[in-house]
């Protein structure tokens, strides 16, 4: 569980507090204030099933992107799919190993989606990083529905908390 935060500027959204981002068990040096809701109600991080991609505040996004570029040992695509900053050539049938991304949340919980939640197939033999920068300096980060796949979420409004666990849909 992680606490659900209230933002008077946007009371209909579900906000959570990111404490840190981890890639391959290494904490990235991202100022925690980047994830906070300011006194005017700007910023913060929303969990939104109506948004497809995940959007992160610019400084965090740039560091995460640079870290993925450094760690990924696959060739990049010469002409990546429009709108994506990192696209990989995954042709050849080799087993693709991608870095693990996790979000440490308020309350000590860790949200660790599968790499297939943030490296998506955009065309035959191409996977792209499904993260985007937030374009406005006062905008909120958004954990979109691709990142949420494979999890069950419990929005416990009475206790002001969000519970989540891995859940797969399979046919017996």
From TrEMBL:
Q: Which domain of life is it from?
A: Eukaryota
List the Pfam families: TAXi_C
Q: Does the keyword Glycoprotein apply?
A: yes
The protein's matches in SUPFAM superfamilies, at most eight in alphabetical order, are given as: Acid proteases (SSF50630)
Q: Which organism is it from?
A: Dorcoceras hygrometricum
Where is each Peptidase A1 domain found? 1-165
Looking up PROSITE patterns in the UniProt record yields:
PEPTIDASE_A1
What is the official name of this protein in its record?
Protein ASPARTIC PROTEASE IN GUARD cell 2-like
Family affiliation: Belongs to the peptidase A1 family.
Q: What does the UniProt keyword field contain?
A: Aspartyl protease, Glycoprotein, Hydrolase, Protease
Q: Which GO terms describe its biological process?
A: proteolysis
Query: What GO MF annotations does this protein's record show?
Result: aspartic-type endopeptidase activity
């Amino acid at each position: 569980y992680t606490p659900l935060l209230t933002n008077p500027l946007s009371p209909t959204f579900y906000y959570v507090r990111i404490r840190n981002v981890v890639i391959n068990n290494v904490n990235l040096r991202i100022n925690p204030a980047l994830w906070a809701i300011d006194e005017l109600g700007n910023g913060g991080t929303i969990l939104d099933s109506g948004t497809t991609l995940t959007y992160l505040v610019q400084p965090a996004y740039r560091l995460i992107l640079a870290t993925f570029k450094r760690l990924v040992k696959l060739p990049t695509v010469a002409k990546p799919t429009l709108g994506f900053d990192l696209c990989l050539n995954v042709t050849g049938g080799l087993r693709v190993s991608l870095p693990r991304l996790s979000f440490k949340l308020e309350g000590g919980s860790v949200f660790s989606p599968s790499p297939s939640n943030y490296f998506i197939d955009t065309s035959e033999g191409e996977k792209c990083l499904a993260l985007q920068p937030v374009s406005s300096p006062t905008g909120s980060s958004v954990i979109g529905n691709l990142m949420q796949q494979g999890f069950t979420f419990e929005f416990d409004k009475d206790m002001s908390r969000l519970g989540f666990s891995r859940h797969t849909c399979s046919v017996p």
